[in-house]
Design a protein that fits this description.
The complex is a heterodimer of chains A (110) and B (115). Chain A contains no helices and eleven strands. With 110 residues, chain A is an all-beta fold. In chain A, strands 2, 4, 5, 9, 10 and 11 form a six-stranded mixed beta sheet that branches. Chain B is mainly β and 115 residues long. Chain B is globular and about 40 Å long. The chains are: A mainly beta (110), B mainly beta (115).
Chain lengths: 110, 115
């Protein structure tokens, strides 16, 4: 079955700095979601990537899917306190299950 | 409704009691999912519904867990004889249809504490 790894459990950056969060798959990704979760809340959909080499941006967040479709990255430019939260990648886990990585907790220090 | 609604938002129960968690999906969404998120853990897939049907129940942690969906809308997740290891946040999500092309919309979850 599909497994998604987010090797960074926690990331602390200074406000205004750029950062990248990665998500690696054990198998080819035929579609990948990025979600954000704030404490006590559900997950908020950010972006979906489907094609190798695809890149999407929303405000200061850019997500990419590599050509081999086994790794995705989420890049935040000029980070702000509002970017703080847990970022999770999700994908089709086979057997009609949508699975998620463990998440990367992002803290923005002023 | 405007979003996925879950109730209760918090539930504290004694070990051995049964609990019922409710999920109201976005109107018109045919697919509905239940996940569990334990402290320090990722999202654990439990079960999904296509309409009222749950094709695969193997993700449910034990036979104490059951779920149903009626009228293609509201779903309930029932945990019988709760144990302390059941303590977690239970998240429900819905999507227009099942599949990678249809993003999931999550509720805020039910935080279950078993004492």
């Amino acid at each position: 079955s599909q497994e998604l790894e987010q090797s960074l459990q926690s990331l602390i950056v200074q406000e205004g700095k750029n950062l990248t969060i990665n998500c690696t798959s054990s198998k080819t990704l035929y579609g990948l979601y990025w979600y954000k979760q704030k404490y006590g809340e559900g997950l908020i959909f950010l972006m979906m990537l489907q094609k190798g080499g695809e890149e999407k941006s929303h405000e200061k967040i850019t997500a990419k899917l590599d050509e081999k479709k086994q790794q995705s990255s989420l890049h935040i430019t000029a980070s702000q306190p509002s970017h703080a939260g847990i970022y999770l990648c999700g994908a089709d886990g086979g057997a009609q299950k949508l699975v998620f990585g463990q998440g990367t907790r992002l803290t923005i220090n002023p | 409704g405007a979003g996925v609604s879950q109730s209760p938002s918090n539930k504290v129960t004694e070990k051995g009691k049964d609990v019922e968690l409710r999920c109201d999906p976005i109107s018109g969404h045919t697919a509905l999912y239940w996940y569990r998120q334990s402290l320090g853990q990722g999202l654990e897939f439990l079960i999904y519904f296509q309409g009222n049907s749950a094709p695969d129940k193997s993700g449910l942690p034990s036979d104490r867990f059951s779920a149903e969906r009626t009228g293609g809308s509201v779903s309930t997740l029932t945990i019988q004889r709760t144990q302390q290891e059941d303590s977690a946040v239970y998240l429900c999500a819905s999507s227009l249809e099942w599949g990678i092309n249809s993003p999931l919309h999550f509720g805020n979850g039910t935080r279950l504490t078993v004492t």
